[in-house]
Write a structure and sequence with these properties.
The chain is α/β, with parallel strands linked by helices and about 325 residues long. It contains 12 helices and 10 strands. The radius of gyration is 22 Å and the shape is globular.
């Protein structure tokens, strides 16, 4: 048996007036998808429960046949996919640079991911690394500009909440433990101390003195989310008897598939979604020796983030 699973990530959407009450998928001219639907079987598949939207990493983890309680956490998965060496006991969080102001003893998010030059990032890294509190050491590893990973060593636990409020104008969220272990309490406490230390040290730093003179938002905090740590996982082949491979263009899927011992054919997005998907399908067709082939494109989802229904329709077509 040979299965090719093509994920058109973010294909679904809401209806929009500019599309005469249709979704971008309904409005799009899709003769090939229509033919597949006519010649095959159609249905709805819910990785978790009906009506519950899932993040990409959890949805894929469940699609690949694993249980939610087995999931290692996105921070760890994406760091592995970015070829960052992580110790088995280290906790990893996704993080990125933000700009905050203090009001009534509360840090308010005013700008997510302010533009930062390479020289500014170099100064930032010297100022924020490393940080030690009690039995916990924290370091920031950049991956894509000022986006990267916060890696916590020592008596650390991934059982903590996020600090990122997502929306600008809202308070930065104090990190809380999600279980009663001393490690979770210490990790949450160390992170909150770290954020206050960052704010106090960076707000008056020469880097930000210059930015303030140019009326640029200050670079004075990191927002974190999706803590994770390695968990031993049964290999995909041993669980299902299928030899699997993933053809995708994101460290998220590279890391996820590496952790479940699926092979990976790494891709890059060129900006031409038709060319990219055509090449991935060609590779899937030629991937002899595999029983399960995962083909992924993020482009429908990227188009949705522009909030332009006509552009998303164009991308689908």
């Amino acid at each position: 048996m040979r299965c090719i699973l093509v994920i058109l990530d973010g294909l679904g959407d809401r209806a929009h007036a500019v599309l005469k009450g249709r979704t971008p998928l309904q409005a799009a001219h899709t003769p090939h998808l229509d033919q597949l639907a006519t010649r095959g079987m159609n249905g709805l598949y819910h990785p978790c429960l009906q009506g519950i939207p899932l993040s990409s990493e959890i949805a894929h983890f469940l699609i690949f046949g694993y249980e939610l309680e087995e999931f290692p956490g996105r921070g760890y998965i994406e760091a592995v996919g970015s070829d960052i060496e992580i110790d088995d006991k280290e906790v990893v969080l996704l993080c990125h640079v933000c700009s905050v102001v203090e009001k009534d003893n509360t840090l308010i998010l005013i700008k997510e991911r302010p533009a930062i030059t390479e020289s500014e990032l170099s100064l930032f890294l010297k100022e924020v690394n490393p940080y030690t509190a009690d039995d916990v050491m924290i370091r920031f590893v950049p991956a894509k500009g000022a986006d990267g990973f916060l890696i916590i060593s020592g008596q650390a636990s991934p059982a903590i909440t996020d600090s990122n409020p997502i929306a600008e104008g809202r308070p930065l969220i104090a990190v809380q433990p999600t279980d009663a272990t001393p490690e979770a309490r210490e990790t949450a406490g160390a992170l909150n101390q770290y954020f206050r230390w960052l704010y106090q040290g960076l707000t008056s730093h020469p880097l930000n003195v210059k930015r303030k003179q140019k009326n640029l938002p200050l670079i004075n905090i990191l927002a974190v989310q999706r803590a994770g740590r390695r968990r031993p996982l049964e290999p995909f082949f041993e669980r299902w008897g299928f030899k699997g491979v993933s053809i995708a263009a994101s460290p998220l899927y590279w890391g996820l598939c590496r952790e479940i011992s699926m092979d990976i054919i790494r891709q890059k997005d060129s900006g031409d979604p038709e060319k990219d998907l055509r090449e991935r399908l060609r590779q899937a067709h030629e991937a002899e020796g595999y029983d399960f082939i995962h083909v992924h494109t993020k482009m429908p989802d990227e188009a949705a983030h522009t909030k332009d229904p006509l552009y998303k329709q164009e991308i689908i077509e």
